[in-house]
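Write out the 3D structure for:
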Amino acid sequence: MAADQLAAIQGQELGNVVTAYLIVALVALGLAALILFTKFPAGKSSDNFGELKQAFGRLKQNANWKFAVVAQFFYVGCQIGVWTYAIKYIMDNHAGVTTEAQAGDYVFYGLCVYAAFRFICTGLMSFVSPSKLLSIMAIIAIALISTAIFIGGEIGTYALLGSFTCMSLMFPTIYGLGLTGVGEDRKLGGSFIIMAILGGAILVPLQGWVIDVTGSVNVSYLIPLTCFSIVLGFSLFSRKYLKQ
């Protein structure tokens, strides 16, 4: 396949990803605005949603929740970026892979392992605290992505695929840890953590821009590496917060 054809296909795939996340983000912001300006009748739930302004004021004082929103923003951007450019990475680094179809097979098996590790990590949480397990997975992800960036080749390819397993628990774990201690404000707090998926619409194009500027997909993975570092920072902060 010619280089210009490959670039056109990758550009189209990136456009589809970015468009999807922009739509989701706009819908989420629209729903947030609707909730903010609409007076809803009192529900029968025992949960007290409270006044939005007062609830948001309390949330702003919760450092753990604020860090969770930031961590989720960078995690989602990291996850989508890792997946979006995985095929290009494999084709550029694995000597035995010459077509997108072959590279796609590697990514498919990586996603299968990702799905399996979602259940494995859930089971591990019976023995290891979520914050500690998140720290462990973030450290492993940092090591694997560093290998993909600085070593590359077949070793880098398998390291990149291995990082899929580390991401399997991150989204729900960040969400759960971020809502620890928010009390009656968990509904509003949870909505902000969910809206942090906007990171997918911002960081993925940024990673593509790095590829265009440097001509190296390996260098572009410095963005996911930074994102995993932020997730690690949140896990350590949250563990300290929970102990308090």
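The domain at 3-35+63-243 is CATH 1.20.1250.20 (Growth Hormone; Chain: A;).
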